[in-house]
Amino acid sequence: MNSTFRALLGATALCAVGGAAAAQDPVTLTIATVNNGDMIRMQSLTQDFTDKNPNIALEWVTLEENILRERVTTDIATNGGQYDVLTIGTYEVPIWARQGWLTPLDDLPAEYDVDDLVPAVREALSVDGTLYAAPFYAESAMVMYRTDLAEAAGVTIPDNPTWTDIKAAAEAMTDKENEVYGICLRGKPGWGENMAFLTAMANSYGARWFDTDWNPQFDSPEWNEALTDYLTLMNEYGPPGASSNGFNENLSLFQQGKCGMWIDATVAASFVTDPEDSTVADSVGFAQFPNKEGVDNHGNWLWAWNLAIPASSQKQDAAKTFVAWATSKEYTDMVAEAEGWRAAPPGTRTSLYENPEYQEAAPFAAMTLNSINAADTQKSSVQDIPYTGGQFVAIPEFQGIGTMVGQTFSAALAGQMSAEDALASAQSATAREMARAGYPK
Amino acid sequence: MARAVSSRAKVGYTVAAWIVALLIFFPILYTIITSLKSEQEAIAGFDLIPSFTLESFRAVQTQNDYWKPFTNSVILSLGSTLLALIVAIPAAWAMAFSPTKRTKDILMWMLSTKMMPAVAVLVPIYLIFLRTGLMDTRIGLTVMLMLINLPIVVWMLYTYFREIPGEILEAARMDGATLRDEIVHVLTPMAVPGIASTLLLNVILAWNEAFWTIQLTTTNAAPLSAFIASFSSPQGLFWAKLSAASVLAIAPILILGWFSQKQLVRGLTFGAVK
């Protein structure tokens, strides 16, 4: 009797707790994000989310990328719980997931349709088959070129160009007297700037960052060939002062009609074809990232901005609801309705690319999806490698090493040293840093 | 005998001073110019003549409300400065007028805390803020900024107080002034120029502080330093917007500095020439 009573009491208490949870106390989610066009747009569309989830309020913290990384790292490492949703890149996801800093997203609702995520992107955000972040925008890299200039110069750029094709086209389109340069490429130092491009280019030449024992490979003939060709292209057909050009600078040059070709992130396609900003909007063609003859590798560039939930968040359920909303198909439809299909966040969902309205509005859709799906982030080089990552090496030390090597290569582009000296310097500096970090591990 | 300065040398000095001043001011000037350009102009290259568009300012205001971080900046910089003065005036008084053998050591030790890189104590302070619920609160940050700038405030006040003859304080004591009277009614009024310049300098330091104000805030207590940081972007054009945000953030302190430059200069050179 007594025990039955106690059991009943317990059950009542449980019901009370359950009832309270069902009524859902209001929670405020703090979302840390970078200042990125798609994220700013998301902030303006959150009304829909708060209408559907009246008990969840949203607070946004926008920070510069490096500050955000620093801030979030401190918070996660101290289990601070200041943030409930984070915007992080493909570089951090596998590293942070392995540290146990991110909540696995293996129980997203069925209507989220996780199988609709573009396979290459999903793979890049998973560790041992478990998804740790939801992508809201993804990109690879491709060639963007001026169809009018190519025609005038009498060259055709095939859909799958080789570097020889690119060089020939760059030569034919260059008209320095009229400030038209055959090719614009990144030269500004940084692991996410020139090294993103150069790592992808080196991949497509069959080079690799490290051998299976983590020895740097800048002394290999493949790196030498890739860097030498890069310098030749830029010195002979590139714009002046290219060693300080990053994504934004090249975007501006291309939009002003000063570049014949530009090989960069696929997301640029929507900017260069936007008649409001671009003077060349109606004459842009697209082709796959080039490869060297005989090397079956198109650079393997893959980047995504993702929403992840730190393990330290106290509001996991509400955070998951938000992440699922912000990266859902319905969200894409909502953006399309509000701002047109061109503005839909690209690269994350197969269904978007099957949508005829999107294909109509975005002439770059097919090439973007091709490029993303061609990217293999698990094995970015044709040679054997111990690391993952496409245009970067997914180890914590890469930010520092990549930027250091980027400075050397940028100096070579500026004419301060030869390709051989730059490679030798990159080789010794990388070997030193890797030894200091305790590799091979 | 006073040394006559030839007029040619005078012109030379004036020109040199102008060149130095322009060099120092140029980055701020160019930020202001860039903020009045469109994004396309901003990235197009060096150009001193903007199109005087206000679109960046409009974009900045719609994307992120300016007044909340502005209010936070005002509260944090004024609050931390007043708090610092309340603590530092008695401390500097004690060290200036009743020095002991250890006074110099204490002063050096206080200054030495400024030599440590802030990031070295980030994790402990972060944890203290978390545990005590001070994270992202104005009160927590006010105390933090006060502590950071305290060594400088004590040092500056100490230097000014040393210029005041101790006999005056003795005379006040003879007339029956209590310790409190002595500090509040005798010492402080005499040291007003020094205190004023310390106050101004400290407000500027607190206003510009960009490490702790970003690390220890998320949304509620974030001041203008965090406001600027939110306008840098990994992709897309943002220079004009970033410049506009910077102009909005530095304008109040620039104006304050402009109006108080006399006090600032007087305070900073006070006691420098004997």
Automatic annotation (TrEMBL), chain A:
<dbReference type="InterPro" id="IPR050490">
    <property type="entry name" value="Bact_solute-bd_prot1"/>
</dbReference>
<comment type="similarity">
    <text>Belongs to the bacterial solute-binding protein 1 family.</text>
</comment>
<feature type="signal peptide">
    <location>
        <begin position="1"/>
        <end position="22"/>
    </location>
</feature>
<keyword id="KW-0732">Signal</keyword>
<dbReference type="InterPro" id="IPR006059">
    <property type="entry name" value="SBP"/>
</dbReference>
<dbReference type="Pfam" id="PF01547">
    <property type="entry name" value="SBP_bac_1"/>
</dbReference>
<protein>
    <submittedName>
        <fullName>ABC transporter substrate-binding protein</fullName>
    </submittedName>
</protein>
TrEMBL record, chain B:
<dbReference type="InterPro" id="IPR000515">
    <property type="entry name" value="MetI-like"/>
</dbReference>
<keyword id="KW-0813">Transport</keyword>
<feature type="transmembrane region" description="Helical">
    <location>
        <begin position="141"/>
        <end position="161"/>
    </location>
</feature>
<feature type="transmembrane region" description="Helical">
    <location>
        <begin position="238"/>
        <end position="259"/>
    </location>
</feature>
<keyword id="KW-1133">Transmembrane helix</keyword>
<feature type="transmembrane region" description="Helical">
    <location>
        <begin position="106"/>
        <end position="129"/>
    </location>
</feature>
<comment type="similarity">
    <text>Belongs to the binding-protein-dependent transport system permease family.</text>
</comment>
<feature type="domain" description="ABC transmembrane type-1">
    <location>
        <begin position="70"/>
        <end position="260"/>
    </location>
</feature>
<dbReference type="Pfam" id="PF00528">
    <property type="entry name" value="BPD_transp_1"/>
</dbReference>
<keyword id="KW-1003">Cell membrane</keyword>
<protein>
    <submittedName>
        <fullName>Carbohydrate ABC transporter permease</fullName>
    </submittedName>
</protein>
<keyword id="KW-0472">Membrane</keyword>
<dbReference type="InterPro" id="IPR050901">
    <property type="entry name" value="BP-dep_ABC_trans_perm"/>
</dbReference>
<feature type="transmembrane region" description="Helical">
    <location>
        <begin position="74"/>
        <end position="94"/>
    </location>
</feature>
<feature type="transmembrane region" description="Helical">
    <location>
        <begin position="12"/>
        <end position="33"/>
    </location>
</feature>
<keyword id="KW-0812">Transmembrane</keyword>
<dbReference type="InterPro" id="IPR035906">
    <property type="entry name" value="MetI-like_sf"/>
</dbReference>
<feature type="transmembrane region" description="Helical">
    <location>
        <begin position="182"/>
        <end position="207"/>
    </location>
</feature>
